[in-house]
Write a structure and sequence with these properties.
globular, single chain, alpha+beta, 3-stranded antiparallel beta sheet, 9 strands, 4 helices, 150 residues
Length: 150
């Protein structure tokens, strides 16, 4: 029988937690590094709930990647959320509180033309793309991460 929660431990240090959500059907099951997501002071690992699942009745998606789910954090713009990794790779965006990694500030400073570029990985121009620092290749941060471009 599998545990209802997962904790990855290395050298007695908890590295990751899995969201257990408030309702069985609505939990997101997202796995995050505690420090990266701002959850490093979680006391009861088997009951940790992500920011997204705190109010599971509201659908949230990344304002840069246009995909719901994942390690999302609120921005300083009402109703806008962003993936932590999408925010990290934007020089215009910073997390106002580094301890809890929220809110993401500077979303509205992202260049509008980044939303019309075509991603070389998914071949779509939905969402915002960044460019390679060595060439003129454009890609979505989430896809670039999954294929190890970044």
């Amino acid at each position: 029988m599998f545990s209802k929660w997962l904790v990855v431990v290395v050298d007695a240090v908890v590295l990751m937690v899995v969201c257990r959500g408030m309702k069985e059907l609505f939990r997101c099951q997202i796995t995050v590094h505690q420090e990266c997501y701002g959850a490093k002071h979680v006391k009861y690992l088997n009951s940790w709930v992500s920011r997204v699942c705190e109010t599971f009745d509201v659908e949230r998606k990344c304002c840069l990647f246009l995909v719901k789910g994942g390690a999302l954090k609120p921005t300083n713009v009402e109703m806008l959320w962003v993936h932590v990794i999408c925010a990290w790779f934007r020089s215009q965006v910073v997390f106002q509180n580094h301890e809890v990694v929220k809110p993401a500030v500077g979303i509205l400073k992202i260049y509008p033309n980044s939303f019309v570029k075509t991603c070389v990985i998914c071949k779509q121009s939905r969402g915002s793309c960044i460019t390679c620092y060595k060439c003129a290749t454009y890609f979505h941060v989430m896809y670039a991460s999954s294929v190890r471009y970044i």
